[in-house]
Amino acid sequence: MASTKAFIIIAMATVFLPSILGKEFIVGDSTGWTTNFDYQAWAQDKHFQVGDKLVFNYKKGAHNVFEVNGTAFQQCSIPPANEALTTGNDVITLATPGNKWYICGVAKHCALGNMKLPITVQPQLGSLSPLPSPSPAPAPSAPVYCSRKYKHCL
């Protein structure tokens, strides 16, 4: 009995723990966040979901990271400098599903088209979907009359 409980706990942890903790993606893999790299191609075969983390590795001062909206992404509109991530090892936890856009705001790195990362974040796998609405109660039927004498109902 104890081994059955342990098996169930281990099985549940195997299924749910990865979706709770999320995966960590090193943006650009071993290349990191730099010029002359195709981040759209890098992201193309990745499956991002809520809870995952993006890690932007780069030489501090050489680059930065901005999360922007779709219009700013297309136009390479750089937000105010105080919104930049600048540590050289920036970690962004993907907290909500939807489209996300990241750019470098140094020099013309974004405008040259090579320091732009668009991704789509999916809801967390294994997350509970809303329960369906309960169906309405059935309409009452005609009254039922039972006869004790004959032990049947009409």
What topology emerges from the helices and strands here?
Layout: H1 2-21, E1 24-26, H2 39-44, E2 48-49, E3 53-57, E4 66-68, H3 70-75, E5 89-93, E6 98-103, E7 116-122, E8 146-147, E9 152-153
Parallel strand pairs: 1-3, 2-7
Antiparallel strand pairs: 3-5, 4-6, 6-7, 8-9
Give a verbal description of the structure.
This protein has a domain of 104 residues: Immunoglobulin-like (Sandwich). Helix content is 21%, strand content 23%. The chain has 3 helices and 9 strands, in the order H-E-H-E-E-E-H-E-E-E-E-E. The strands form 3 sheets. The protein has a 4-stranded mixed β-sheet with strand order 2-7-6-4. The chain has a 3-stranded mixed β-sheet with strand order 1-3-5, with no helix packed on it. The radius of gyration is 27 Å and the shape is globular. This is Uclacyanin 1. One of its GO terms (cellular component) is membrane. InterPro entries: Cupredoxin, Phytocyanin-like, Phytocyanin_dom.
Could you estimate the helical fraction of the residues in percent? 10-25%
Content-based structural category: alpha/beta
User: Could you name the CATH class of the domain at 23-126?
Assistant: Mainly Beta
Please tell me the overall pLDDT: 82
Distance between the termini: 51 Å
Q: For the report, how would you describe the main beta sheet?
A: 4 strands, mixed
Q: How many strands appear in the DSSP assignment? A: 9
Summarize the model shown.
The protein has helices at residues 2-21, 39-44, 70-75, and strands spanning 24-26, 48-49, 53-57, 66-68, 89-93, 98-103, 116-122, 146-147, 152-153. With 154 residues, it is of the alpha/beta class. 18% of the residues are buried.
